[in-house]
Amino acid sequence: MALYRTFAGIAACLMMAGQFVIAPAHAQSPAPSSPPPPCQSEAFNQFDFWLGTWEVETVTGQTAGENVIQKVEGDCLIKESWTNTAGGTGQSMNFYNPVTDEWRQVWVSAGSIIDYTGGLTESGSMKLEGTITYTGNATSFPFTGEWTPNDDGTVTQHFEQYDPETEEWKAWFTGIYKKKSVKL
Questions:
Q1: Where residue 152 sits, what CATH number does that domain have?
Q2: Residue 28 lies in a domain
Q3: What pLDDT digit, counting tens, does each position of 75-121 carry?
Q4: Phi, psi of 40 (to 5 degrees)
Q5: Residue among 184, 145, 183, 172 at smallest CA distance from 59
Q6: I need a surface site. Which of 26, 90, 108, 149 has the fewest CB within 10 A?
Q7: Residue 11 falls within a domain, yes or no?
Q8: Which residues are 53's β-sheet partners?
Q9: Is residue 26 part of a domain?
Q10: Domain containing 49: what range?
Q11: Within-domain flag for 35
Q12: What's the pLDDT tens digit per position in 131-159?
């Protein structure tokens, strides 16, 4: 009986405070809905044609280096790890921003920083525009990069830098990406 009086007293206090709601015994609160997994929409997969382990050649057929492109962070980030034939390295982080509807790449190596944004072109290539900064002399220039998937499974990467003296865009590097066979 004392337990009933205690419960009745608590219920009366809560009802007076306007915080007591009696729900029927059969009522259930709805299960919380889980949010969709991040980075799964089609836009996050636009640059997937660049994923893989690649041997990169110049347009004249000389080996320029190796590039490993992989998705990390729950498929929200594409990480690039480059090593050229002389042992030089560089890395980039590539991501799609759903607010701006743009891709962004930030490349960092011992000699340069490239920061640019853009997206898919009508022809299906990924084109980014921004700047290259040379860390040794602290100069910066407009810069573009374009990755084009080819019918044979290769990818052509073409960079251009703007030359303010000639007021022209000049080819900076063009490479052909060829998938490396995976040895088990």
A1: 2.40.128.20
A2: no
A3: 999 999 999 999 999 999 999 999 999 999 999 999 999 999 999 99
A4: -110, -10
A5: 172
A6: 26
A7: no
A8: 68
A9: no
A10: 42-179
A11: no
A12: 999 999 999 999 999 999 999 999 999 99
For the entire predicted model, the pTM comes to: 0.79
Taking alpha carbons only, the member of 160, 147, 157 closest to residue 48 is 147
Sheet strands (E) in the chain: 52-58, 63-72, 77-84, 89-97, 102-109, 112-120, 126-134, 139-149, 155-163, 168-179
Task: Give how many domains the chain has, as a whole number.
Answer: 1
Which DSSP category does 44 fall into? G
Closest CA to 47 of 171, 157, 180: 157
Tokens standing for residue 7: 């419960």
Phi-psi region of 27 (alpha: psi -120 to 50; beta: other; left: phi over 0): beta
Question: Are 161 and 170 a contacting pair, CB within 8 Å?
Answer: yes
How far, in Å, CA of 167 to CA of 146, rounded?
Answer: 20
Nearest to residue 44, comparing CAs of 5, 90, 75? 75
Residue given tokens 């990390």 in the structure block: 72
Show the tokens assigned to 39.
């980075």
Task: Name residue, tokens 């040794």.
Answer: 136
